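SEQUENCE WITH STRUCTURE:
===
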Amino acid sequence: MGIELSLADVPLGPFEGSLVTVYSARSKEANLHVSRQCGQLRTSEVRTADVPLETAMLRRLCSRCAAWGVWGRPGTGLGMFLGALGGTGLLYQLQSYVKPDEEERWSDREAREAAELLRTEQDVDSDDDEEEVEGGISRREAREDAEELRGLIFAHWRGAGRSLHRAQATLAHFPWLEEWAKPSLTVKTRYLETLRSQAARFVDPEELVVAAAATALPVPELPHADPAFAVLGGNSRVSRALVDLWHRWQSAAERPWEGPGTRAYLSYEIVRGIRSNRKGYDEARAEAARLIASWEEQAQAAATPADRAPRCRLTAQMPEASDAMPRHGARDFLDGLDTWTLGVLLTWTVDADWGSGVLILEVPDLVAERLLSPVSSLPCSPAAAAPDLPEPDRSSGRQPGIVRPGVFDDTPVFDRRPVTLDHIRALHTLGPAADELYLVFSASGGAEVLPLDSIEKRLAKGWLGVLIAGARDLPGSVLGLQELVQSPEPEAREAQLPGRGQGVHDPNFGEGLGLAEGTRRTLRQTYATEDRNLNLRLLALARGAHDLRSLDAGQPGGLPVAVWHGLLTEDRLSLAPFRQPGSDRWRSGSGLPLGPLAAVQLYTTNASPLIEGKGHSPLCRHAHERAVVAGDDLLTVADLMARTDFDWCSKCGGYAMRRLTDTQLSYYRAAHQLHGMKGRLDGGSGIPDTEISTVIARLDELAAWQPDDEAEWCGSDSWQWQHTIRELRRRVASSHAVTVPDEPAS
């Protein structure tokens, strides 16, 4: 570790003065804590306060909270800034790999001698392994020690490169820290170069060029009919063995520090599994050794002295150096690179921007051909003529991707800054626990609910908008999260159809189709308290999406399945009240208007009878319960009533329905009650005299039914509803010869 840095040393930039919540004991001089559960907060009387973020406040933080404290929600600008500093973040990285480790220390001389030993030992016969060398140890032990040191130096070089990358990549989001961090970065860069030069001693540049030539050689004509290989079996087995030997040799050529001596031992591979005392064993191995020697000569001849001079300039983009790295797991910074490519980086890197993972290489032509080929594990392109890496253009004053107040925070909406692709990448990098859904606003689309991936795709096409709120920003007081999570589970009810445990006058009729049951369903399928809070917020936000296909469950990091069950139900609507009257008493309807139910959405995997395959609910096990994806079909209840050619799955019924709003559920109940009254009159059973006043009163209540938004209840739907009620009142009156009170105004 290098210079000791603490959180109080960090310039706070635009976040200085932001209010943060801290906890402490009652004493005025007590340490501050950012978590009420901090192990160093040992008091039963905890004081909570919102204080401005300032250096003086940071100096009062307990050591544990200063290093590992979690500040607020990770999806806010302030949370991402403070989170990027603590733990194994920026402060840790700036103090890592700045000098040799106390426990794993070696001198430059030791590195040089180990590299020389391994180079000279490549061609030493294994029979001499027990011969003693200087220091009283055997050759084998000396070689093993040198190999261990080589591995250690390589590991430290990789770790130092990864650490420098992480530090510079973090600083790119907070440019006001660059000047403050420059001394630490200089020390880290200097130490990285020391490690690179030490590691490069173990790599022979000529071997790298020869290896590039070897891998570019075409498959030679192999001696399939050579009698020396008869011990291997028939012609087909000989052919497979020789082709395998060729590929093994080319693969071994990509490991530069093993040298040609190691590749010569591949001659034993061709007789693997054959007894050494078998006739023809020695001849086959000897001929294989001659073949390998001839391939070595071809590679050496292809790598002429002119090809060994580094003349070609390339720009290399390190794998896993993009913003996708933190999002998809903590892979090593240099994972995916073979040892030959690592040797190239060690030998011919002339400039580097580790933050963006861009390196400038000056390599021989043969090496350049290999790096530019499709088989290369390192994306490369010809570099520009300029000798240095280009500096970022900040002359305009616009620095996209900078994490600052006004993009992610709960600032007034009219002060929000437009979100950019770089902001989304910063959110992926610095806030891996970012919300799955966001409420956004744009002049083109107004207010919308979108997944983060959809926002990213729109931004790539030039969309201009702001983030209003993520799911975690929704006020729990409005959602009633505590009450929902702590409320007891209601009694299980039967399906919401007439004749299955509930009558149409039951106050709970149809409840399983509504939003409240969707909330309970999400809670039932979520276990951890923290997840329940988040899922309920996601459910509330997702209900604001006009088309659930825009939430595409096929995207990575989509909504949990429990939330989809809160949005959709596979229970069927009973549509009998809305069918036209007919002679079939079991299929006859009341001709009621669909009203608010007409636009209720239904999602299916296939609504077209012309396309092969039945339609399934997106929650059906035949559709792998994948939830709604962008390619699903969207219908409405009105569409369902208008067609009879659907080919539905017999298990799930073919579709999942979006849960009914309170208005839709209220109308559904009212329609079924009206249909039930009409059915009693049509069936001839009549209504007893004792119930006449009750029935008329209920008809008056139904006549007064209106949705929350009266503008939605007008025109033909309202007229048809009132006409049906008037007709029923007349029938009730005429059947009992009673005087019916004047109808209420509609």
Summary: The first strand starts at residue 19 and ends at 24. Residues 321-330, 392-400, 492-499 have pLDDT under 50 and may be disordered. The longest helix spans residues 139-171. The CA atoms of residues 523 and 532 lie 6 Å apart.
